[in-house]
Amino acid sequence: MNPEGVPLQGRGYEGYPGQPRYPGQPTVVQSTTVNIVTEPPKDHIIWSFFSFVYLNPFCLGLVALIYSIKSRDRKMVGDLEGARHYGGTARTFNIVSSILIGIVILSFIIVINVGR
Questions:
Q1: Whole-structure pTM over 0.70, yes or no?
Q2: Given a cut of 60, is residue 32 above it in pLDDT?
Q3: Nearest to 57 by CA among 1, 10, 102, 110
Q4: Could you tell me where the DSSP H helices lie in the chain?
Q5: Residue 57 region by backbone torsions, left for phi larger than 0, else alpha for psi between -120 and 50, else beta
Q6: Which of 89, 95, 103 is nearest to 51 (CA)?
Q7: At what angle are helices 80-114 and 60-77 packed, to 10 degrees?
Q8: Distance of CA 64 to the CA centre of its chain
């Protein structure tokens, strides 16, 4: 059997991508578009406000509120990376403030109950 005389079946012209299969045929190029929807950064403004008003040991609530306002300003300008940075710093100050006030309240409850 002579392999040159047998046409290949099931295989068409495999040229370069975007090249027409047959001369005179329009070129078809496939493309893929990926849309990534990112969630806007959180500024934690309400948590910072409550930390400032109610739980303000060592003025940490005030610092958290300032960073939250900076985060909101950065978000309005369009600097999402700066907004994430300031929002994360505000969250850290809010967590530290909440933990410190929780320790103070727990210590106060223990002292009241032991004193009875």
A1: no
A2: yes
A3: 102
A4: 45-53, 60-77, 80-114
A5: beta
A6: 95
A7: 160
A8: 20
Residue 16 maps to a domain? no
pLDDT in tens, 58-100: 999 999 999 999 999 999 999 999 999 999 999 999 999 999 9
Q: How many domains does the chain have?
A: 1
Domain that holds residue 60: 45-114
pLDDT bucket at 39, cuts 50 / 70 / 90:
confident
Burial class (CB in 10 A: 0-12, 13-18, 19+), 45: middle
Residue 18 resides in a domain: no
pLDDT averaged over every residue in the chain:
83
The answer to whether residue 26 is domain-embedded is: no
Q: Residue type at 101?
A: I
Distance, in Å, from the CA atom of 80 to the CA atom of 87, rounded to the nearest integer, reads: 10
